[in-house]
Amino acid sequence: MNIFSRLVHKSRKWLRLPFLPNGGLGRGLGSVAIIGSGSWATAIAKVVVEHTHYIGWYLRSEEKIKAFEQHGHNPSYLTSTHFDVDEIDFSADINKIAKAFDTLIFVTPSPYLKDLLDQITVDLKGKTIITAIKGLVPGENLTCSEYFHQHFGLSYEQLALIGGPSHSEEVAMERLTYLTVGCANEQKAEEICKILRSDYIKAKTSSDVLGIEYAAVLKNVYAIVAGICAGLKYGDNFQAVLISNAMQEMERFLTTINPLSRTISDSVYMGDQLVTGYSSFSRNRTFGTMIGKGYSIKSAQVEMQMIAEGYYGTKCMYEINKEVQAEMPMLNAMYNILYNGADAKQEIKLLTDSFR
């Protein structure tokens, strides 16, 4: 920013008034706020603030906010990623952020989303809501966009999502990443892409919102299967077959629930599955590996100290598929292991016999 822009920015920050920098980049989105305090929220905040030079940021702890403002980084996640805190309007009051900002990017673990949204009392009908949550709303068995639509009366043109293979650690390190923005409103999707694109972020649009949301849930489930198999000492030859069958199963479900033209090999589907199934950064694969090595479900969760969304996604997807009735042997095997106490080694052996 030039000197004049920085002075204007600081004065507006002091007054807590959102504004549009850079000659109106992202003008259709207005002011932007991040809702969430984890690693992916931190990575997205880094990407967005590089464009806007001003964001709101809801963190649920006043202590974390004080530590963040003092040290210039998230005290708990991606601590090597530094921010200019003069460009951030922090608040532990979600209603203050929801009221003051035009576009809200929700980046919270899906198991906590419903409780968080129950705290919102302000009207969201004039807002743009973007979710970067790869999970369903537990207890509701709804995708995030469906939940916002049904419980807040928002049109699908106001709702968007950020998907694609994107470990927060690599985004923070500015490693080349390809994202997909899903939205029923193509113009709005393109506006969102503008505040994401950079030398290390490529972004494109898609209208397959529902398909991307369900694919993001299923890839976590399949990553746990991949981890279990790794823990059981299955080799790379089998892992390739496993992922191949996972993509076939995912396509069957997506075609059944939302039969539109899509290319399952696209990065937002297959790419996200590959990185989640193979990467050492994958929480779901790590969770599965521990189970394969003999950890109980509870002990694996405690030792990880992080949320493996696929654990919750398995139950939600199993219940949804009771109605959809797609052929999903991998999902069924995961449900038996995680919720019915089935022996992982025996269940995976039964699963391998069903592969082709």
From TrEMBL:
UniProt keyword annotation of Oxidoreductase present:
yes
Task: Tell whether Oxidoreductase is among the UniProt keywords.
Answer: yes
Q: Which residue numbers delimit the Glycerol-3-phosphate dehydrogenase NAD-dependent N-terminal domain?
A: 32-188
UniProt xrefs under Pfam families: NAD_Gly3P_dh_C, NAD_Gly3P_dh_N
GO terms (molecular function) for this protein are: glycerol-3-phosphate dehydrogenase (NADP+) activity; NAD binding
Q: Where is the Glycerol-3-phosphate dehydrogenase NAD-dependent C-terminal domain?
A: 208-348
Q: Got a GO cellular component term for this one?
A: cytosol
Q: Which reaction does it catalyse?
A: sn-glycerol 3-phosphate + NADP(+) = dihydroxyacetone phosphate + NADPH + H(+)
Any GO BP annotation? phospholipid biosynthetic process
Identify the EC number(s). Answer: 1.1.1.94
The protein's UniProt keywords, in alphabetical order, are: Lipid biosynthesis, Lipid metabolism, NAD, Oxidoreductase, Phospholipid biosynthesis, Phospholipid metabolism
Binding of NAD(+) occurs at 283
Q: Which family does it belong to?
A: Belongs to the NAD-dependent glycerol-3-phosphate dehydrogenase family.
Q: Which PANTHER family match?
A: GLYCEROL-3-PHOSPHATE DEHYDROGENASE, GLYCEROL-3-PHOSPHATE DEHYDROGENASE [NAD(+)] 2, CHLOROPLASTIC
Q: What name does UniProt use for this protein? A: Glycerol-3-phosphate dehydrogenase
Q: Which organism is it from?
A: Prevotella bivia DSM 20514
